[in-house]
User: Fold this.
Amino acid sequence: MAKSTGQQVKALAILDLLKKYADEENPLNAIEICDKLYDMGIETERKSVYRGIEALIDYGYDIIQTRSPRAGYYLAEKTFELPEIYLLTDAVQAASFITVKKTRELVKKLDGMLSEGERKKREKGLYIDNGHKCENEEIYYNIDALSRAIADGKKVSFVYTVRNITGDRKLVSSNKEYKVSPYALIWQNEHYYLVANNEKYDNLMHIRLDRVKKVSVLNETFRHFSEVSCYNDYFDIADYAAKSFQMYAGELTEITLRCNSSIIEQVVDRFSDKIFIRNNSDGWFTFSTKVMLSKGLVNWILQFGDNIEVKAPETLIDMIKERIIALEKSYGLYKE
Assistant:
């Protein structure tokens, strides 16, 4: 049995109904709103619906009255627009560090921001690939704990899990305890990484969060990043991510590359359009930038084959040669 309810509560209930059921293609008219309010246990009439909508409009909600494709009302401005929810949903599904369970929970919350009609459209194209998702259910809470530790300048301890293969071809996991000073969280190469310093060394390390468990924030002040990095006032996450390749750490060094013009898009995507290009002729260009020398950098360069030539430094040239020789040996092509 529906009961009489105050106008303020009715207005809020109408707002919820417009969010849940109405959109530009599926507006709700006053009679439909009355029926749905009745199902919620709220007795009302069309005049009360009109007053409720007017009150919401006066408060600032962008409620549109339309005659096409049918007469009714819908909420024009929502917290997230339809393309934004699609984008966020796709990002959640693509993120390998988010577990299947958490993926479904987040997708459900995002879908809750859609109207019923929009949600039906979305469900037709919804697919969650379970194969590439991690199984560490702690990661969601670990991100929160690590974010708090970074903000408060505290050290953390955790258990890090790695997999190895035994002599009888079985995969086994082994655990190692770490105590580190955390500086940044970076999402790169489909994984979430913690950039930190192991107090035993004077450098930075990258830790995959899907392999981290039992995070504890310690009551110990972290080692300042200025002691182990090139940053002084604040840790520039964007700059650091741009200089690291495939989240390999290494020594910051200036490199010079000569590239074929056919890969200009890939080069700009990786180093930004602010690189200074020189000697642009005969289909080739040259530029210099500072990055970390690492296996990740070597792998990135080699994927382009003879479209990239390393001009400097000699250290990187030697790393490239060593990698090529190792590959040739793997395929029986190298001769002493």
Notes: The first strand starts at residue 3 and ends at 4.
